[in-house]
């Protein structure tokens, strides 16, 4: 990888918690940053906060609601129109097991189960839409911020319309991210682009954790250090298709290693996102 000061990096969900702290660290290292969020005011506050620490930071704001695939497509179009190269994509945005005041099943704009849509499908679609740009920018990296909470995907009820449980929905969406990471790594292994995912830390003091009514266990710094390592560590050049628990490589749920399940998920994802197969088979 090129030095961080020469890289262009896109971080989704960068106006709070892990994403915001990671952006602050990368700005201090001189990276050109594209900061995504869904609220312009929070975006402005984030950029002002980062510039207070790194006055010369090269920062760019991207607004999109990832619960709408139309807005994800618009986000991709904006990136493609403004970015000549993309060295690192960090799919960090997500929602937890519950939203404030509502533990019931919710749906995205397209009518998909909300956690599956935001935590997984949005990152899947964004990555696929930006994949050609990332490949042209090689050496490059794709990093999916997943979780140690993983549940197998029941393909006969992916949208959890029966016996819904927010924890299961969250864990299913996070396993889907890992399955996609392994698939992507295999696709790109000859193209000098790596794809890895991680559980950054356990119950950091982020908005997602606090809204879920959970007491923090890990510090935010632990999560930032683990994620930053996947972005910048030269020792990981060529390392791809791995799931990390913090700083250590770990074994994901067995379904992640099932090629048939990954194929089933990929075909479902392409259909839900209205993507032609050719978008990632060329």
Stretches where pLDDT is under 50 for at least 5 consecutive residues are: none
Count the domains.
Answer: 1
What is the percent of helical residues? 40-55%
Number of strands: 8
Alpha plus pi helix count: 8
| Mean of residue pLDDT values | 92
CATH topology descriptor: Rossmann fold
How much of the residues is beta strand, in percent? 5-15%
The CATH superfamily is known as: NAD(P)-binding Rossmann-like Domain
Radius of gyration: 17 Å
Order of helices and strands: EHEHEHEHEHEHHEEH
CATH architecture: 3-Layer(aba) Sandwich
Give the strand order of the largest sheet, numbering strands 1, 2, ... along the chain.
3-2-1-4-5-6-7-8
The CATH class designation is Alpha Beta
Question: Would you write up a description of this structure?
Answer:
This protein has 282 residues and is α/β, with parallel strands linked by helices. It has a single domain (4-280), classed as Rossmann fold (3-Layer(aba) Sandwich). 41% of the residues lie in helices and 14% in strands. It has eight helices and eight strands, in the order βαβαβαβαβαβααββα. It has helices at residues 17-28, 40-53, 69-82, 114-136, 166-187, 207-211, 220-232, 259-272; strands at 8-11, 32-37, 58-63, 88-91, 140-145, 193-199, 243-245, 248-250. The protein has an eight-stranded mixed beta sheet, sandwiched between helices. Strand 4, helix 4 and strand 5 form a beta-alpha-beta unit. It is globular and about 50 Å long. The two termini are 24 Å apart. The model has no long low-confidence stretch (mean pLDDT 92).
